[in-house]
What we know:
Elements: E1 7-10, H1 18-32, E2 40-45, H2 49-52, H3 55-60, H4 62-69, E3 74-75, E4 81-86, E5 97-104, H5 106-113, E6 120-125, H6 132-138, E7 141-142, H7 157-169, H8 179-194, H9 201-210, H10 215-229, H11 243-251
Parallel strand pairs: 1-6, 1-7, 2-4, 2-5, 5-6
Antiparallel strand pairs: 3-4
Helix pairs in contact: 6-9, 7-8, 7-11, 8-10, 9-10
Amino acid sequence: MKEKNMHRVLIPIDSQNAESWSYALAYAEKMIEPRQNSANVVLLVHTKNQIRSTGLSSHIGSPQVKILNSGKPLTLPSGAQLQLKTLKTLGYTLRDTIVIAFYADDKLLQVVDDHKELAGVIAIPDLPGDADLWVARWAPIVHGQVTKPATKLISDPVVENALLAITKMVNLSTGIGHPRDKEYANENLRILKTKGHSLDPDVLRSWAIQNGWRSSDANDLAILAKKIWGLKNNPSLSKIYNWRERYVSWSG
Length: 252
């Protein structure tokens, strides 16, 4: 579920508007305050080219862009250090780090979601709708809008209970990479399909990430679900051990 100490903000302003960067920095500084200026800030983009030849370069300013491109940090007014990272250079340990995800889309934000130890995430989409799945997944603060309560991604309790059973069974460090875990997930999804339940693979992916799965493993689970719900006929359950008992346990 949502981490207790992680703040998430969406800035739905045209990324070509310089205010998008100004607001991102302002939110970052606000997140830094209670941490006594000890947090680091990362500007995350897909590739370095996005800071060299896009509107972001003019937002930040040429001298500052040169510093960031050289790999050196910029010192923010709070004293915190701002560094440039890309999908290839983000690294693995980002404790107490605030990520400004510029030109954010689902691919970029899935990578960010793999870092459970972040202090905060500020997303600025390139195009409207690019961060919709992330917003549905986490119900972040949306700049300029009234905060809305989070809605359940999966409203069918039977489906959610079946997915929770998978989540408890599999090793979340490998997802469904182990044949035994994949078979268990496959069986549960086939039971749901045959019993008439629906499941959107994109929603499943978001639900899995929200519930502790790594994004790549959540993608694998979504692909498996897409395959099963794409079958013309319902799968046979005759070879699945205690499928009736499983289904009853999810329905209770």
